[in-house]
Specification:
With 103 residues, this protein is mainly α. It has helices spanning 8-30, 33-38, 44-51, 55-63, 80-88; strands at residues 41-43, 70-72, 75-79.
């Protein structure tokens, strides 16, 4: 075990810096917390598993505007309620009125 000794003033300075960093992080996330508490968000893999579709089909749903999504740090997220609504509407792949052809 290695022991490192530092001055108390340096330790107190580090504690204050960490406290300020924590406060900044809490302030930055505070406005987004209600958004994530209201709704459960799913990533690509979770949506594909839930809908039993491929990633390519999911991309087609996004391209056609059938499934809204939000992008955060280059990753797509979908509201569970939107995915559930699409599931309840039936597989949109087999209808002609939304631009898809029957398969």
């Amino acid at each position: 075990m290695e022991v490192i000794a530092i001055q108390k003033t340096a330790l107190d300075g580090m504690k204050n810096d960490l406290r300020e960093l924590l406060e900044m992080t809490e302030n930055a996330t505070r406005k987004y917390t209600p958004i994530f508490k209201e709704e459960q968000w799913l990533d690509n893999q979770e949506v594909c598993l839930m809908m039993n579709i491929t990633k390519r089909t999911l991309q087609t749903y996004k391209d056609k505007g059938l499934l809204p999504y939000s992008k955060l740090n280059r990753k797509n997220y979908y509201k569970r309620s939107d995915v559930q609504a699409l599931l309840e509407a039936g597989h949109p792949y087999n209808t002609n009125d939304n631009g898809f052809t029957d398969e």
